[in-house]
Write a structure and sequence with these properties.
Layout (H helix, E strand, L loop, with lengths): L9 H6 L3 H11 L7 H8 L3 H13 L3 E7 L2 E6 L4 H22 L7
Antiparallel strand pairs: 1-2
Helix pairs in contact: 2-3, 3-4
Length: 111
Amino acid sequence: MINETAESGELCKIFGITPRNRILEFFLEMRELDFGIGDVARETGLNRATTYNTVEELIRQEIIVPTRKLGNTQLYKLNLYKPEVRALVEAFNVLLENIVKENSGEQLVEA
C-alpha cells in the first residue's frame, strides 16, 4: 500500500504514483548510496511487504543489485552498469535540470 502522506517526486508525477515508481525514484535520487528494505519503505511511504516484493522484482530485472550486508540487513543500490538504468538516470537528470531551470526562469532542456 502507498502512504499518501509521503510526497511524490517528479518521476511519479509524470509516470504515476506506483510502488515501483516510488522505489525507482528513491534509488535515482540516492543513486550513490545503498539501503536496506526497511529504509526504502520508510522513505517512500510504502509498507515493508510491498517494498520487499517490488525490490525483489527490480532485483530480478537487475535494476537494483545487492551490495553488502550490514549486520543482518542486506543493502541494495541502483545497478548503474545496466544500459537501461543509465538511460533512466540520464532522463531523470534532465528532469531535475528542467525543475531547476523552471524555478530560475531559464530555458528548459529537451531529452
